[in-house]
Amino acid sequence: MKKTLKRLPKARVDTSHPISFTFEERAYRGFVGDTLASALLANGVAIVGRSFKLHRPRGLLAAGREEPNALVQLESSALTEPNARATLVPLYEGLHASGQNAWPSVRHDVFSPLAWCKRFLPASFYYKTLMWPSWRNWEWLIRRLAGLGRAPTEADPQYYIKQNVHADVVVVGAGRSGLKAALDAATHPENRVLLIDEQEELGGSLLGSPTDADRRWLSQSLEELAALPNVTVLSRTTVNGYYDGNVLAALERVTNHLGPTTGYSVRERLWRIYAGRVVLATGAIERPIVFPHNDRPGVMLASAAREYTHRYGLTLGESIVFYCNNDTGYHVALDMTRAGIPVSAIVDIRGDVDASLSAAAEDAGIRLYQRCAITQTHGRRSLRRVKIKQLSPEGDRLIGESSILDCDLLAMSGGWTPTVHLHSQAGGTLTYRENDACFVPDTARQSVRSVGRAAGDLTVPLNLRPQWLTPDVSPEHQWVDFQYDVTASDIQLAARENFVSVEHMKRYTTNGMSIDQGKTSNMNGLGVLATSSCRSIPEVGTTRFRPPYHPGSLGAYAGLELGTLFEPYRHLPAHEEHKSAGARFEDYGRWKRPAYYPQSGEQEESAIAREALAVRRSVGLLDYSSLGKIEVRGPHAREFLNRVYLNNVQTLKPGAARYALMLNESGIVKDDGIVICLAEDLFLLHTTSAGSSSVYQHLEECLQCEWPDLEVLLSHRTTQWSTMMLSGPNARSVLQSLDCDIDISRDKFSHMQYREGHILGQRCRILRASFTGEVSFEISVGASRGVSLWRELKSAGKPYGIVPFGIESLMLLRTEKGYLHIGQDTDGTTMPQDLGWAGAITRKPTDFIGRRSLELDVGKDGGRLQFTGIELLDRQGRISSGAHVLTEDGRRSAGYVTSAYHSPNLDKPVALGIVAGARARRGETVTVIYRGQRQVARLVAPCFLDPEGKKLDD
Amino acid sequence: MTERPFVLQSSKRLLHRSGLFVTEPSQFTLLCVQVLQPKAEAAESFADRIADPIEAVAPGPNATAFSHGGLWLWSAPGEWLVMIPEGTKDAVLNALQPSEHRQLCVVHDVTDGYAILNLYGEKVRQILARGSSVDFHPSRFADGDCCVTRLAGIRVLLVQLAGESLLIADVSYSDYLQKWLEAVSID
Hints:
The structure holds two protein chains of two kinds.
Chain A: E1 14-23, E2 26-32, H1 36-42, E3 49-50, E4 57-58, E5 71-74, E6 81-85, E7 95-99, H2 125-129, H3 135-145, E8 159-172, H4 176-186, E9 193-196, H5 212-226, E10 231-234, E11 237-243, E12 247-253, E13 266-280, E14 284-286, E15 299-301, H6 302-310, E16 320-324, H7 328-338, E17 343-348, H8 355-363, E18 367-370, E19 372-378, E20 385-391, E21 398-406, E22 409-413, E23 416-418, H9 421-425, E24 430-433, E25 438-441, E26 448-450, E27 479-481, E28 486-487, H10 488-496, H11 502-509, H12 522-532, H13 537-540, H14 554-558, E29 570-571, H15 575-580, E30 584-588, E31 591-596, H16 604-617, E32 620-623, E33 628-633, H17 637-644, E34 657-663, E35 669-679, E36 682-687, H18 692-706, E37 713-716, E38 721-727, H19 731-736, E39 754-759, E40 762-767, E41 776-782, H20 786-797, E42 803-804, H21 807-817, H22 838-843, H23 851-854, E43 865-872, E44 884-886, E45 893-903, E46 908-916, E47 925-930, E48 933-940
Parallel strand pairs in A: 1-7, 8-9, 8-13, 9-10, 13-26, 15-22, 16-17, 16-22, 17-18, 29-31, 32-42
Antiparallel strand pairs in A: 1-2, 3-4, 5-6, 5-7, 11-12, 12-13, 14-23, 19-20, 20-21, 24-25, 27-28, 30-31, 32-38, 33-36, 33-37, 34-35, 35-36, 38-41, 39-40, 40-41, 43-46, 43-48, 44-45, 44-47, 45-46, 47-48
Chain B: E1 11-17, E2 20-25, E3 28-35, H1 43-48, H2 53-57, E4 64-67, E5 70-76, E6 79-85, H3 89-95, E7 105-109, E8 114-120, H4 124-128, E9 146-151, E10 154-161, E11 164-170, H5 174-184
Antiparallel strand pairs in B: 1-2, 2-8, 3-6, 3-7, 4-5, 5-6, 8-11, 9-10, 10-11
């Protein structure tokens, strides 16, 4: 590759501002306006990468997003970025890049001998050869060799952000067609126009145009655009996905052009775009020609040669040969000669080239070899010469003698493929255009249209004669997919092995897969498959395009949803009090709830045991504010609740509360809670903390869709109230010591009763219910008073040795009592009869949601998983949640342990579980297995402490 | 609806970033007014009840209004949040005495249940659009508009007033929202 000493005069690089960078640890110099690719070419670097499978040396093929070879690793450590295309990386001071898939360097790669093994490594070789004796014997090796680039091993310190935007007209692509479409749409001032382009500057292929007219038109259009207030321009932004509802996803590289940033600035922004209508001006991609050793460094697309010459001002070679099957090669060659670049020859597959074009080339001193094909390329590290041979008039075989052309750059043009990815992602169909041998957009399913080259409007006729592979020479080294080392012989093999569906061929050969997504290989692959299977290309069809169009960084998709912002969280009103008390928080639903409050040096288990003992022996205090609270009001409130709960609500009197189960339509237990009758037409539901929102939605749905005739209003009041639970034998004494106008004596305020009044001068609600098995008072005050209530209760409980206890301690206490925890002790199949609630179903005279399902046979099977207590025979043993209870023959699972603790009050392990037919098997010994360890246990009633419930009546 | 709400006159500063200021108003009471929606067959009688103190003043969907000494915000069909100055609750409740004709109406004091953030600055709309898919362009979300949407994964009520926005969310998300605003306002 020729080193460019001086840039051409019209180049769009600023030669007064040099930039230093390194590639493969060697220092180079480029200029502002260069990409890494153009700077490497300017420095004469021919090899920029190694192919994926065969480690063949690869040079630059293209100048844009379609580049399959120049994948580089940018920067290092936490800031490293794999698989960056050198053609898209703007040069910045200090840029550090290295090649991928090679060791120690892309220039001297120890794996390069693999290139000689093509015959032994055809497509799918691993499917056939790595199965013996077992895939696992090879897996380690494949995993070491596979993959492109290295993922960073440290956390990315850069910021990524997401942004939604709405626009009436979205134009994708700012080449000539895109600029025209944007200017046209913006003439209507009410239109909000969003113009998106992936390059550093707007202009598309106009940026590489040598003509003054094009450059003038571009600068005038950009000036017009800048003056329009209703146009927003996003450059350095790639539209990656087109989804239903005219929603597009685009990735903006905000500060990539400045290099890695470590301060508070955004590196990339993921745009979610809601478009009224969309104009796709995404252009077209030039196709390579398939011929032997077409992957050698120094072989490049003609469009790339044009771009590097006119946009970046490079002199790519001293002797340039063009190889084409359409007129593009002539136009580019002539432009280059006008710029003073030596073009020595054009090799054309066609024999019937327009006479004026041929004459112009000859006048420019270019030798023409028409109806010829290149049959070989030579050169160790880069191209030195090509071998050409005459084609028969039909183009199906080679004739005559070979001749050699010396050259250091081969620019090829195999035709153009409109960039239809987004049109296809939007659900649009494609149609095959025979003249240009390409698929073009046909019908659209959303409000989208393609314009310019993306629509197949190639401005001037190509006069193309397709040649999908070179005849009469081995297809083994005729590359179709440069990135994945897929050759024409691989596709022929797929066809022979009956992988004739284009989707099958793609997966079998990997043609058009992964990072590249077939931008340069798809059409040639279809052509070879069609030829091999004796079908036309429309008969073969094309693969479906799916997002993303171009790979994006994972950071952009994560955005700010990391660390503490990974998902929304909720704080209890007294969160800071718990924090200062040293609580260990855990996530329950979205709530950050204190799990336990360890004292200095105390381990989790000891802290939980201490708290549980204190509750049983004296009194404990729990922040229960997350408990769901839904008010149901109206003349039909009672009737409504009677329909949605299994339990009979009709008999519930004001001031009384009742534990109740809520089922779904299939009779599966959905939630449990306490229904409190505040007045004849007003009820308060205490639901599970995590389930309150879903219960509220369920109730709303029932009201709006099932029973709109019921006059009922729902109010979700969970966070309006702060609830503290006093629990333990001394709970009443603590509460009585506070200024409270509610008579809480045993006779006046019994279990499952509710009162309203004032405590410490604040309006309060007190419920006597228990989830610990001890006398408990759930005291609710306005959320803003929660902190002061917490403090006052702690202070009042000091004489009784009150301890704050967390949710983990509560779980231990309720397990000792055998109280059910929905979601933990139930699964997606649990019906009320599995929990011992068959009697309640029978007793209830009226209908309720789920009743019909409960009467089906499936609910009556005695072998269902039933709620049970599980007791280890070894009192000192340990039992874990998730342990399986084995069937009698010890070969299968008969259920599992759902809750398990070591009870400090009973000094033995206690567990609950769901086991097949457990109620009828009470007293049976079973084997419990956990991580391979077996223990003997007994199925018992699910209550280990105070089965008569005497403590609740204290 | 361009009047500046009284409730924003006393505010605690929470965040100050380039183009974004976040304060927390104080000295207000938030009421939730719920009215049972009239059924289709009762539409005529609903029209008759327009003289009712609530239905006469309550703004329609996604709208706000100043009335009865409060800022009324539509929050759901048949439901409004009403911000009133602290200490005026009883007067407002009296003024909203339910009509004899009304099927069912409830007024709750929900001050403790909500966090209200006042956002102002040139980047407010842009920053809100980082967490919500609502079209915040001034022509689509104008002064006096409000909407219930998901912002940063949680349900919020957004209110656009002259030159400032109110973000109303469940109080338990207050810390999360503030941290999210802090993070998302980096540019």
